[in-house]
Design brief:
This protein has 437 residues and is an alpha+beta fold. Helix content is 54%, strand content 23%. Its EC number is 2.7.13.3.
Length: 437
């Protein structure tokens, strides 16, 4: 149990360290990508807007001239120059969509550009990003801007500009790939580093746990013999001197015997936990019926239930057979029944229900006791955990029983869960492998 606990703890620490490092790494990569791409695109946007301003100043008068002299429009020729050396273009377009002037480096995409700018009257500083298809199947990206020309509040034409940002977009794609490769490498490094750091962090915990385990084991062994001697001595004195003892003295002897029994059980449980941790307990599995075992434990617990006027019922199909260690399953049932009685109320109820469910057997032990607060339920199977310290002492609880129950269930490849409401009671549900008779 100890090794598995430390493995789980190291896994959680590794996951925590790795998650933190991956979070910071992804944040750094995301910020780098956003800032890098924003700087590249922003610079290009500024250039295309500046080009629109420049061409507006140069060609605005041309649109005004043609608008004021309509006859000149018929003689004006389309003069779009081809300039392969520049990745930009500009078109001077009338309100009717006729291009009267311009420069371009890719004449083959003019129709696509005209389709994008048709009926578009750009606002001041507005930029659009568009993607166009080339004849060879490749795509290119353009940033488009423009500046409309007005006369007396009437739109008479627009000067459109654009810049080819395909190279810049390719740079951004390469940046994404590079950052992705770096991310994969660093995630692998983060996992290794997280595992290494968690191992370092676990060393003092493992050492402290080992010292505690050794102390518990040694102390339990050392206490077992004196406790047995004390128990025997008290019983001998009580028998031999019974007639000489007063009622008060007899009560003291009775209380001493009860406390010795409790101490003996605690020592036994501690030794059992130590053996769990050392993996020195081996299960002897066999097929056996549950019904006789549950009937036997209900009969043994009848005196305790009668003291608190608790009604105990069981619904166990006779045909249900499980495959497990008979002694440990009996111990599991005793722990759950003991808790159901101990934390129940007077005139309460205990119900044991066994269900046959697709190759597994489900055992449910429910009570109408005081219940467990929701915030404590995730921890009740941890050793020495007690919901209410003072209440557990009054009821002679030591916080070990449910941790032993959890170990027994885990050793049988089963599960144990709890459902509880304060003031209404608790339901412990165990699922174990089953074999039909």
């Amino acid at each position: 149990m100890g090794n598995r606990m430390f493995k789980q703890m190291r896994f959680r620490l590794t996951l925590l360290f790795t998650s933190l490092m991956v979070f910071f790494l992804i944040s750094f990569i995301a910020i780098s990508y956003i800032v890098g791409s924003a700087l590249i695109i922003t610079k290009q946007e500024q250039q295309v807007v500046a080009l629109a301003e420049e061409e507006y100043k140069e060609h605005r008068s041309e649109l005004l001239y043609l608008h004021n002299r309509p006859y000149a429009m018929h003689t004006k020729k389309n003069t779009v120059d081809y300039r392969a050396e520049i990745p930009m273009f500009y078109y001077v377009v009338t309100k009717d969509g006729k291009i009267i002037n311009g420069d371009e480096s890719l004449p083959e995409i003019r129709k696509q550009l005209i389709r994008f700018i048709a009926d578009w009257i750009p606002r001041d500083g507005e930029v659009r990003r568009e993607t166009m298809n080339m004849a060879d199947g490749t795509t290119i990206s353009f940033l488009l801007s423009g500046k409309p020309v007005f006369q007396d509040g009437v739109h008479i034409g627009t000067i459109y500009t654009g810049t080819n940002i395909t190279t810049q977009m390719d740079i951004i794609k390469v940046l994404v790939i590079a950052l992705g490769i770096i991310a994969v490498l660093f995630i692998g490094l983060s996992i290794w580093l997280g595992y290494y750091m968690s191992g370092k962090a676990m060393i003092p915990i493992v050492n402290a746990f080992q010292r505690q385990k050794d102390f518990v084991t040694n102390a339990s062994h050392e206490l077992r013999t004196p406790l047995s001697i004390l128990q025997s001595s008290i019983e001998v004195i009580e028998v031999e001197e019974r007639k000489k003892l007063s009622d008060f003295s007899l009560q003291i002897f009775h209380d001493m015997k009860d406390e010795l029994k409790r101490m003996t059980k605690l020592v036994h449980d501690l030794l059992l936990l130590a053996r769990f941790d050392a993996n020195t307990i081996f299960l002897t599995k066999e097929q056996f019926a549950l019904a006789p075992m549950i009937d036997e434990w209900m009969r043994k617990c009848r005196m305790l239930t009668e003291e608190k006027k608790i009604t105990c019922d069981a619904s166990v199909p006779q045909h249900v057979v499980i495959y497990g260690d008979k002694e440990r399953i009996a111990q599991l049932l005793f722990i759950l029944l003991d808790n159901a009685i101990k934390y129940n109320v007077e005139n309460g109820e205990i119900t044991i229900t066994v269900r046959d469910d697709k190759g597994k057997v489900e055992i449910e032990v429910s009570d109408t006791g005081i219940g467990i607060p929701p915030e404590h339920q995730p921890f009740i199977f941890e050793r020495f955990y007690r919901v209410d310290q003072s209440r557990s002492r009054n009821l002679q609880g030591n916080g070990i029983g449910l941790s032993i129950a959890k170990w027994i269930v885990d050793a049988h490849d089963g599960t144990i869960t709890v459902q509880s409401k304060v003031g209404e009671g608790s339901r412990f549900i165990i699922t174990l492998p089953q074999i039909h008779a």
